[in-house]
Every structure is written in structure tokens, then in C-alpha cells.
Amino acid sequence: MRVTAFVLLALLAVAGGVAVFVVNSMARATIALAVSFVAAGAAILLVDAAYLGVITILMMLMEMGIMAIFMIMFMMNPGGLMPMSMMHNKRGALVVSIVVFLLLAGGALGTPWPQRRGTPPSDPTLALGEAIMGGKMLVMMTVSAVLFATIVSAMVLATGRGRYDGEPSARPADDA
Amino acid sequence: MFLVLAAALFATGLFGALSQQSVVMVMMGLELMINALVVAGAAFWYFLAPARPDGQVFVLVVLAAMTVEMALGFAVATLLMRARDADMTDMAGDLRG
Amino acid sequence: MTAAPVWSVLPAAALVLAYASGAAVLDGLLDPADRDRGAGVRAGRPLWETARLLRQRRRSTVTPDALLWRAGAAGPLVVALLMAVVVPMGGRAVADPVVGVVWFNALDVALWLLVWSAGWGANGVYALVGGYRYLAQALAYELPLMFALTGPAVAAGSLRMSEVVAAQHGLWFVVWMPVAFGVFLGAVAGFSLWGPFGYPAGRDVAGGVLAEPSGVDRLVLLAGRYALLAAGAAMASALFLGGPAGPVLPGWLWSALKTALVLAALVAVRRRMPVLRADRVMRLAWLVVLPLTLAQLLVVAVIAVVVGG
Question: Which residue windows are transmembrane per the record (chain C) (predicted)?
């Protein structure tokens, strides 16, 4: 049961991932990536990591929502009305990625993994929360600082006006 | 088994990141690769050391890294677009202002 | 709280649809446009509309992205039903996962992409504008919604819906988290494209995401909108209004009554408030509502620590 579900989800995840680079329409590519992420998140749900699985799905769907905007905004052919290839060095990339896959999969199957230590706690979410607020607090503090720096630097990079440019005058009139 | 899935996702993402021309598509490839890390992290946690929460914390950190990548990637893409109307990695080859 | 058997999915879905139809009937009754007609005609409007849409031939646009369009039209209904899975009614829910609250949140984020693809797939200007408006509005309400959901979870010390409900035995959460309650209701209206947050389906863009679908597609999309309202109202009654808690009457009746009341309030507000533009919503949400929600969360956290020892 669990194995079947996992195999189905894994196939869906990989198929979604492949579809991202195959389909013509940017909208479909974004949705395909979202499907891939949801399948991966659901696969994580199978190993009793309920919080991680759901939070992965949540985050990824959100990011894909934002991604949709940028995809359509920046791509020259968002609707896929003019089929064209956006690849360069396709063969080389294919060879490299197949070799990497074989290496990684071989490593995953061939490595003598150590014996499993301990059993999962009855409530992994609770254990995670206590870890974040206890022993692993420093990690999360660092992450929060990094995130804040990201917000600031992303704004600085992306915004079109400088410190003294004031409000954009292009704001639509209030009675429009 | 989970690691094979992770490997497949990683390879797909790598293919995308290497072969695509558009900045945004490269980012989608990177996203797939990081997604593979999330899957692998959860699998390591569950199958090797489920008693300790380190694996779960690792996954959270990876998720945070993913958001950072997205935010900065889009910021740079917006900047490129503004500066020189380019959305291709080849055109952005020289990053001199 | 007991785990319900698998077949309880069916009555839960029927319940959501019943609430959704009730909301549609009430909306018909409250519509001032038909005031001179009889109450019976107005109350029956959802029925006539359903019959009309079922018979209507499906119109299509030039080169639509049919797959995404259909998925987007069906999306809201599916999401509403999935949301209803974790909502306890009268002490019972179809499923009671450890992370029920996050489940609800993840589903409402799923709407971002679904509604957007409903707008995108139609390949029409107005629909596309509606889809982007939805994304812009979602960016505004999502963060306050997340912190509003955090409040009850912190106070209950659990993300499990049954424990959140159980934690309100002494005092309903709405009493000491009024801000979170208000934000939650606003966000429900937001993700259902309703009332003041109906901007993505606004009249100025000929109905936005609702502009192009016709026939069965339109029926499913409209039904999904009411179903989202219903699921949101049920969630509000469980998260903030104590769920089945109440004197004299049995628990399931209290749950049903509270849900119906919240739903009726949401429906009634539709024509009483102006539609807000997305940039205004953004300003309001990030500059006023988000700090308020955070302050609310701080109060909740302090109380939880003090009371919980």
C-alpha cells in the first residue's frame, strides 16, 4: 500500500519535473513544477513527517504562484503559441545529468547504510518544535537573519527607484 | 528508494539548469534540485536516525534556502530586465554594470 | 473525538454543498436588483441558474489552454471539499491529522495557482487581469491569515483541529483573539473572491476570472466559490467559536448553527461593502493588519505562557 503510493507519487514527481522542460507553455511549465512539488511533499507525508510534508506543499505552491508572474513577465514566448526551443547545449546537459543520476542512484543503492538508530517519536511535529525552540535555536536564529538580509537585498536589487526618488508618480488617480 | 527519487529529481533539475537559456527556467531547474534535497533529507531522517530531530531541522533550513534562492533570483532577474532587457543567461555573461 | 470511517467523506461533502446552496439562496434573497419580484422567485434563483447553466452550451474562446482552464474552474470546489475534511462538525471530522491547521493553510495557498490558471486558461484579457488581481490580493491577505491561524494553534498548544476545539471549553477563542477572528473572516472572503475582496471578479473587468467560463464550467466555478465560503465559515466556527460548545442544545446543532451564522454574515456583507482595489488591500494588509495580527499573537503567546505555567 505504502510502497504503491510512493511509487505513484515518485513517478508523478519526476514526470512533472520532466514536463517543466518539455512543454511549450510557460503557464503549464509552472503548474507542472507545482505538481512535481506537491507529489514530492506527499511522498514526505508517507514517512510520518506530517508537518514537513504539508509545509513543503504550502511553500512550494506559494512560490509557484509568484513564479507564474515572473515566468509570464520575463519569457519571450509565455503562451507557447510559437513552438520553439529554448535549449542550448542540450546534448551535453543530457549526458551530464544522466551520468549524475546514475552516480547518485548507484550511490543510494550501493552504499552500505548504517543500521537505523532509534524509532520515530510518537509526534514528530512536537519533537521538531521542541528542537527548534531548544537545542537548534541558533540554527533558526541564523536562518531568520539570513532571510531578513534576503528581503532587504532583494528589494534593493529589484526596485527601480533609489532612496530619494519618492513615491512612484504613476499611481492611478484615486477616482479611476 | 526515496534516494532514487531524490536522485531522479536532482538529475532532472540539473538538466534544466544546464540546458535552459532563460534565467527563470534555470531557476526552475535549481528549484527541482533543492526539492531533491528536501526529499533526501526527510528520507535520511526517517530511515537512519528518526529519534533525533536534526533531519527535520535540516529540511526546514533547506526550505529556507529555497526561498532565499527564489527571492534573490527574481530580484536579479528583475534587475537584468530593467538594466538591459535581457532574460537570457548568455546575454548576462558579463556582470559588469 | 473519534476518527470517522471512510464513508463519512460523503455526508461531509453533502454538508458542504448544502451550506453552499443555502448561501446561494440567501444571496439571491438579499440581492436588491430583483427587489420587486417575489421572495420565492429570488430564493429560487440558484435553482433556475443551475438549470440554465446545465442546459447552456459551453462557449469557448480562441485557443484556450483547456487543461488549465478546466482545472482552474474545478479547483475551488475541490479545495473546499478538501478543506472540509479536517473541519470538525459537532466533535466529528472526517480526518483529524496532526497538522490540521497547516493543512487548511496549504489548501488555501493552492487556490493561488488554481484561480490564476482559471484566468490564464481562458485566453482572454479580462480573465487574465482577474487572475493576476487574485495573486496580488492573495499576497496581501496570506501573511495576516497565517498569523491569525497561528493564534488558536498557540493557545491550544497543538495544530490538531480536535485539540484546538477542546482547548476552548472554558472560553471561546474569539473573546480574546478578536483581531485574529476578523482577519480570518476577511481572508475567507479574500480566497472566495467575495464582497470587498471581489476585485479579481470585479465588474470593471466584466467579471474577471468569471468572465469567460460558461455552462457547466461556470456552474462548477460558482458552486466552488460558495463552497469555499461554507468551508471557511465552518473552520471559523471550529477555530474561534468553540465548535460544538454551547448550553442546552446538542453539540452538532451548535456547530451547525454557528457555521450557518458565520456564513450568513459573510453573505450579507457582500453588497454592503465597496470592492477594494488590490493595491489598497496590500497597503492596508501590510501596514495596518499585519502589525495588529502580530500584536494579537504576542498577547496570545504571553497569555498561553502565563496560564500554561
Answer: 6-30, 67-89, 109-129, 141-159, 171-194, 226-245, 251-269, 281-307
Chain A contact for C49 (CB, 8 A cutoff): no
Chain A positions touching C121 (Cβ under 8 A) are: 27
* Host domain of residue C289: 6-308
A48–chain C Cβ distance below 8 A for any pair? no
The confidence score (pLDDT) of residue C292 equals 92
Contact B45 A49 (CB under 8 A): yes
User: Closest partner residue to C159 among A65, A79, A125, by Cβ?
Assistant: A125
Split into its structural domains, chain C has a count of 1
Closest residue in chain B to residue A47, using alpha carbons only: B46
Mapped onto helix, strand or coil, the DSSP state of residue B49 is: coil
**What residue in C sits closest to A130 (Cα-Cα)?**
C157
Query: The whole model's pTM is what?
Result: 0.82
Q: Taking the CA of residue C292 as centre, how many other CA atoms within 13 Å lie in the half-sphere pointing to its CB?
A: 16
Contact assessment for residue B75 and residue B11, using Cβ atoms and an 8 Å cutoff:
no
CATH 1.10.287.3510 for domain B2-84:
yes
Q: Tens digit of pLDDT for each residue in C96-145?
A: 888 888 888 888 888 888 888 888 888 778 888 888 888 888 888 888 99
Nearest CA in chain A to C106: A58
Q: Which residues contact C2 (CB under 8 A, 6 or more apart)?
A: C92
> Residue C89 pairs with which residues in a beta bridge?
C92
Q: Where are the domains of chain B?
A: 2-84
A87 forms bridges with which residues in the sheet? B20
Q: What is the pLDDT of residue C42?
A: 78
What's the gap between Cα C161 and its chain centre?
Answer: 17
Q: Residue type for C112, please?
A: W
Interface of C with A in 212-231 (CB under 8 A): none
Secondary structure of chain A as H, E, C letters: CHHHHHHHHHHHHHHHHHHHHHCCCHHHHHHHHHHHHHHHHHHHHCCCCHHHHHHHHHHHHHHHHHHHHHHHHHCCCCCCCCCCCCECCHHHHHHHHHHHHHHHHHHHHHCCCCCCCCCCCCCHHHHHHHHHHCCCHHHHHHHHHHHHHHHHHHHHHHCCCCCCCCCCCCCCCCCC
Residue A176 pLDDT: 43
Cβ–Cβ below 8 Å for A81 and C117: no
pLDDT at B49 over 60: yes
Q: Domain boundaries in chain A? A: 1-79, 125-158
ipTM above 0.85 for this complex: no
